[in-house]
Amino acid sequence: MVRFEDVWLKYRNTARAGAPAKDVLRAISFEIPDGGFRWLTGPSGAGKTSLLKLIYLAEHPASGLIEILGTRAANISRREAALLRRRIGVVYQDFRLLPQLSAYDNVALPMRLARRGEAQIAADVTEILRWVGLEDRLHARPDELSGGAQQRIAIARAVVGRPKLLVADEPTGNLDDEQAERLMLLITALNRLGTTVVVATHNMALVERYPAPKLRIEDGKLVQNG
Ligand SMILES: Nc1ncnc2c1ncn2[C@@H]1O[C@H](COP(=O)(O)OP(=O)(O)O)[C@@H](O)[C@H]1O
Ligand SMILES: [Mg+2]
User: Fold this and answer.
1) What is the CATH number of domain 32-61+83-225?
2) What is the structure's pLDDT at 22?
3) In testing the pocket of ligand 1, which one of 7, 9, 10, 11 has its CB within 8 Å of the most ligand atoms?
4) How far is CA 124 from CA 42, 88, 129, 182, in A?
5) What is the tens place of the pLDDT at every residue in 140-197?
């Protein structure tokens, strides 16, 4: 389960020292049950990425309660946070691939961190890269690939460990319609196997094709839940 109760987020390090910190998210409360799927929508600058960062523990709220996969996020140790993070797959808006690693090694990374065996890694990484249509680019580095291909590697890396929670930030931004459709098949298959999913998107056509409850934020406030 993902639970937010009256969560506020401020960014401290704003441009001018001493400038008042801006409330980026205000009084956010919602719950996503285990195995649930939510679209996260709202205009650019509304706070979607900020909300996702709170979910994958990259930011801390100014106040409020956050519970992720049954664990309260406040005051957990670094080790607990690291273990929790391993159960969360994240597709970053800007991909965050490691430039010196091949497509294969980028996708293998979370499995290696989780100390899976290389035979299992080879099977799973090859399978997921085949699914996203990159089986012939296993050895390419990110800078040798198109933006769409990089995004598909980022998606493959996020799902390869079958996370309990998948958080995807505009995952179709660089994909054509057919690739976006394929991505949604992958995400809905994972969701059916029990992964809780949150997808931030601008792609309203996609939202309409895959009806699911929406979390909509505008100017830092949750204006729709359901
Ligand atoms: N690291 C940061 N420091 C200060 N302000 C930020 C930071 N990240 C985002 N913001 C501001 O927070 C607001 C919400 O941003 P963001 O969560 O990226 O929105 P969205 O993903 O919906 O486009 C924007 O006004 C943005 O400029
Ligand atoms: Mg964003």
Assistant:
1) 3.40.50.300
2) 83
3) 11
4) 34, 17, 9, 18
5) 999 999 999 999 999 999 999 999 999 999 999 888 999 899 899 999 999 999 999 9
Report yes or no: 106 and 145 within 8 Å, Cβ to Cβ: no
Number of residues assigned to the chain: 226
Cβ atoms within 10 Å, residue 190? 19
What's the number of CA atoms in the CB half-sphere (13 Å) around residue 9? 27
- Would you state the pLDDT for residue 182? 87
Q: Which ligand 1 atom minimizes the distance to the CA of 42?
A: 22
Query: Which atom of ligand 1 is the closest one to the Cα of 52?
Result: 17
10, containing H or E segment: strand 2-11
User: pLDDT band for position 15 (50/70/90)?
Assistant: low
Is residue 20 within 8 Å of 84, Cβ to Cβ? no
The span from the CA of 166 to the CA of 151, in Å, is 15
Domain range annotation of the chain: 32-61+83-225
Give the pLDDT confidence of 182-221 residue by residue, as tens digits: 899 999 999 999 999 999 998 899 999 999 999 999 999 9
What pTM was computed for the model? 0.93
Instruction: Count the alpha carbons within 13 Å of 213 in the hemisphere toward its beta carbon.
Output: 16
3-state helix vs strand vs coil in the chain, percent to 5: 35, 25, 40
Ligand 1 near 49 CB (within 6 A): yes
| pLDDT band, residue 37 (cuts 50/70/90) | very high
